[in-house]
Amino acid sequence: MNNVNHNDLSKIKIRTQILTVADLLHEVSIGTMSLFDAKSDNKSEKFSVDAIEGSQYIESMLLGIVPQPCMLIDETLLRRDDKLTLIDGVGRLFILHTFTENNWELSGLELLPNENGKRYNDLTIVYRNIIMYTKITCHIIEKGTSDIAKEVITQRWLKSLKI
After folding, report:
1. Which of 21, 53, 54, 118 pairs as cysteine with 95 (C-beta 3.0–4.6 A)?
2. How many CB atoms are closer than 10 A to CB 108?
3. Confidence category of residue 43, pLDDT binned at 50, 70, 90
4. Which pLDDT score is estimated for 163?
5. Predicted local confidence at residue 74, as pLDDT
6. Which of 18, 19, 17, 22 minimizes the C-alpha distance to 132?
7. Distance in Å from the first CA to the final CA of the chain
8. 39 pLDDT more than 60
9. Going by C-beta distance under 8 Å and a sequence separation of 6 or more, which residues neighbour residue 14?
10. Which residues pair with 16 in a beta bridge?
């Protein structure tokens, strides 16, 4: 791998932004963020997730525990379709999008078993608000970041998920 010139921090542009789930879902709904898996070669294939894993992710949010509360977004490539690329977070955002669109029922909940069988619209307003106003820290690789720096940042991010 090529070395980044460590004296040229002007080629590394990252901003951190706190967004709510509602903010992120709005980006999906207006078409500025894609739910395609950026790591997949097949851009027509959407991410999929196990219903119980998805349900337990939602349950964790309802309990105030947000597993992996960060996402890494690449805006250096605003691809031909002008969509932001999620480097990490596609699965979590897909879960949130499909659940809040009322596409599936919660199942396999262990700590909130009374919520099993409910779709998003069946939840109390309190639970719906907890989901929508949960804060996600988004680290955004900005335009102007060198390809080498972006590659190093991405690899370091993905390696850290294993720690």
Report:
1. 54
2. 14
3. very low
4. 67
5. 83
6. 22
7. 22
8. no
9. 139, 140, 141, 142, 145, 153
10. 139
* Greatest pairwise CA separation for the chain in angstroms: 56
β-bridge mates for residue 20, sequence order: 135
Model confidence band, residue 148 (pLDDT cutoffs 50, 70, 90)? confident
The pTM (predicted TM-score) of the whole model is 0.82
Distance CA 86, CA 40 (A): 12
* Ranges of each domain in the chain: 12-160
The DSSP bridge partners found for residue 84 are 33
Q: Please provide residue 4's backbone torsions phi and psi, each rounded to the nearest 5 degrees.
A: -85, 140
More confident residue, 8 or 86: 86
Handedness of CA 42, 146, 151, 156 (dihedral sign): negative
Distance CA 32, CA 133 (A): 20
* Helix-then-strand count for the chain, H and E: 5, 4
List alpha helices for the chain, DSSP H: 21-29, 51-62, 90-100, 125-132, 147-160
Using CA atoms, how far apart are residues 155 and 62, in angstroms rounded to an integer?
31
